Amino acid sequence: MRLQRPPAPVEQRRRGGSGVGLLLPGVLLFLLLLSACGSTSSGGGGGSSSSAPGVSADTITIGGVLDTTGPIKVICAPILQGDQLYFNQVNAAGGINGRKIKFIQVSDNGDSTRTRDAVRQLVEQDHVFAIFQVCGSGNANVAESYTVPRGIPFIDPIGGGSKYTDQNGKALPWVWMTQPNYGDEGHVIGYYAATTLKAHSVGLLYEDDVLGLQQKTTLAEALQKYGSRLVASVGYNATQTDFSAALQTLKAAAPDLIVLNGLPSPTARFVATAAAQGYRPRLGYLANYPMADNSWAKVLGAAGEGIYVSGYTSMDTPVAQQYLQATRSDPVFSAYKFYGYINAKIMVDALRKAGSSPTRASLRDALDHDFVNYDTGFGPTLTWTPERHGGVSDFMFFQIKQGQLTPVSSFIKASAVWP
Amino acid sequence: MLALLQVLLSGLVTGSLYGLLALGIVLIYRTTGVLNFAYGALAAASTCLLYILLTGPRLPFWLAVLLSLFFALLLGAVVERAFARPLLAAPILTKAIATLALALVLQTVVQALWPQLTTPVHFPTPFEGHALRLGGFYLSLTDGLVLLITALLLIVLQLFLLRTRLGIAMRATADGLEAARLMGIPVGLIFLLVWMLTSLLAAIAGFLIAARQTVIDVQFMDPVLLLAFIGAVLGGLDRLEGAVLGGVLVGLAENVLALLLAGHSLGALDLGNPGIREALIFAGFVLLLLLRPRGLFGGAALRRV
Amino acid sequence: MAMKRIVSPLKRGQVSQDAPIGATPLTTGGRAERASGGERHVWPRVTAPLLGLIALILLPSLFDLLFGDSADFQLHRVTLILILAIAALAQNLLTGYAAQPSLGNAAFFGVSAYLLAWLNSDLQQPYWLAVLVALLACALLGLIVGGPALSVSGAHLAIATLGLVVLTGSLLTLWDTSAGRQSYELTALPEALGDDRVLYYLVLALTALVFFCAFHLLRSRIGRAWIALRDSEVAAAACGVALTRYKLLAFVVSAVLTGLAGVLYATWGTTATASMSSVDQTIAFLTMIVVGGAGSLSGSLLGALFVGLVPLLLGELPDPLTLGPLQLPIATLTTGIYGVLLLLALIFFPGGLSSVFSRGGRLVQGEGGKP
């Protein structure tokens, strides 16, 4: 019957004109009420009793911008879970110098035009002590242009392309990177492919963005230096549905080895496409660190056997074992969740080192001076000095054997390969 | 040459998958006037269930498929009753936005139910690793199945719409609601059945896409859906065979461009760049529509399903 | 009429229902206003928007009282809503009034922001010059898009313009990638605009101006022609409305306004990204008018409020949310909650939220983008 009801004539439909007036005050009221709710519900750790914002007698409030609603939620949402897991463990064990950690997360929807607003919410409304993690390189860069001038410590911008130096290569104050960058990794992969695997010609499948291109450059450099050659490279984008043409292009160049750069799902689909068409390079594949994860090996199934993977975390370490213990009930291992966990540990160590009444300055001093050859507890060491704020740069290699990542090398320092 | 053949085949298969999706998009658009942007989420929900049935209780493959298809029918019915029905009389754009909202809800529910699917997982099928080999040319079992099932479904649907009472009733509803009502066709029931049928089609397309990619996650249908819509519009949005052809065209264009442009550059610009390929495909689509405003295969004022 | 019939069976009933109105299309706009302004709505029509404006002008002081030191930040969020309202208005003029179901507006949104970033940050041109160039470019683009769009209609137009948005987005991404940028930050913005209050008052003034102009535009010959187009293209043509000219004009006006929203948005976020020209963004514009009310000025405001504010508020919920014995990972659920709210809004207010405000006992039926 609904269909037969005549639609109201146009006149009624556009009575909006009269509505505007009634509307605005109503809207304002609504806005005020809701904003007020918002600010009281998460205001929490205001720093009234202490000298530093976000630090009270029993709480340290820190904040992160992690997309849990938008296009990169696949990456950032599990990272958030890892963060929360570690912070909860620390809180259960009594916190940091008697203070519990309160971690506030805001989603910027993966959209860097919204990042500034998200960081402002954390700093101006929620009064956080420091920023821990902003997910996405571009997003992190936007966050930095807010935090750096204001002297707000920002630890772990997530994304291999995040800035931690200024135009002159000088370390940005107030930003500390933990993640290795793709450029360093490209050098180490090139070195390993040419010297240990003895690949004379190498093909590259890379994600077509600034990071992928950066790795393409450094990989080619290192291959050249160590007597090998990059013979073909094909870019893909994350939403690509068909890898047949990419495969045929790389196959035509007959490389000994194909390096896979970027994200787990597209690279796995490339390998599956190749397997379905009966192709595998002579030495197989070498994937970069986002694929250093047993769940990727599982995704590949039989086609994954023998594939090399670069990585910077080792599971035979106390922190990794502690993580595996804590996540026994998870259906699958998530490399992203693990990432959150190990970085939350670095954050907590930094807060511990910042003293019993931490200020932003004392945290900065701790980060700049107390992290020299710091043992991360998950494999590589990390060094931060006032001049160097970059992340770890040690890589090791694994090979997939019976569906498991099995270490086949020790850690190789990027600076040793490409001084 | 072999490489080109292989890429053409792949384009044909990818295109068939777009076409299969476009079938459902056209069917539901023609009968209920809904531009169904939730179509990908419907497909993903049923496919994710299939994955869970295969990996959780480890049901036999065909039983799991059967159960998931049944679920798809149910899902279609629930969606129609709960949300499409109340919005039946709403303007077309309202309905389109509602399907987007529905997609958000479906995706969130699937993700909350099965968090393991937020990361990419291997989608196991018995077809994996089997291929027909002719010299250096490979036709994988999955690809063969995709072509076969798309062709079969197209024929079956055509026959169904042309020959069966129900199909004729559906076409009548699509052609004119009032007239159909006057002829005593239970229009409400027809809408319900159309939603169930398209949800079923979505599920089949989802299964095949998952089988072909071998990797899925909650959002695996997102990038495919837009291309399927483009296929549907190229096909004219009113004929089933047009939809499939439109989809195939998109798939072929995508693959052939990728192969031809690889390794070439224009000054400093790398033409093999996927961004350029994407831009070319969409530019081509917009241009084609300008030349043929009602799609390549769309009839001017003729009405067909 | 034949073309209309193919598009959707549901439309046909409505077309015929509309026919008596369409027969005198040029007068309906005027009649509508007289009708609503007639007896008891005389004073609210003039005074109420004014009151609302005054309230918005006083808002910063109120926020000082309410929020203390986070007042600036809260104000910054209201600024966002106002910017979105401009974009919603742009979509509404094109879709809700001139009945072009175009999903292409995000293309202008992104292009204007990138032009601003390029001219202002890279080429060091004055901000206002950059804005002006961006708006002119949008007008030109609107003309280029609008021209061909005349021959494409209905769902075809919607998907074609959606394709245009994806095309623009991939070109912008290409630009980013080849320039080696992760984010296109606006580094040379005028210092004054860094002040939240200045930005707020600037945006408020522009929004008020744009809505004021739109209000009068819709009552002019142009607006009446658009409405006539919407009610029945055939009838409008028969009555001597120059379809081509008015449709083109709708595209251009909409493009310029979206461009204005784009430069303001980039200024607000101090960044331009390719995601400003994405399917999601363009859908957000459409959502604003559908949920707010197609063919209604107040609907544009309400829609902007819904689409802009609801996700922000949901994002304020603490994660995990503890509800009795339940621990909800709310951060990953907010998208779904937003979807549910949106669905409910559409089901219960099919004519848009603005229909709440039109009284008279009749349930309002929105008739937004008629293909």
From TrEMBL, chain A:
<dbReference type="InterPro" id="IPR028082">
    <property type="entry name" value="Peripla_BP_I"/>
</dbReference>
<protein>
    <recommendedName>
        <fullName>Leucine-binding protein domain-containing protein</fullName>
    </recommendedName>
</protein>
<dbReference type="Pfam" id="PF13458">
    <property type="entry name" value="Peripla_BP_6"/>
</dbReference>
<keyword id="KW-0732">Signal</keyword>
<dbReference type="InterPro" id="IPR028081">
    <property type="entry name" value="Leu-bd"/>
</dbReference>
<comment type="similarity">
    <text>Belongs to the leucine-binding protein family.</text>
</comment>
<feature type="domain" description="Leucine-binding protein">
    <location>
        <begin position="59"/>
        <end position="403"/>
    </location>
</feature>
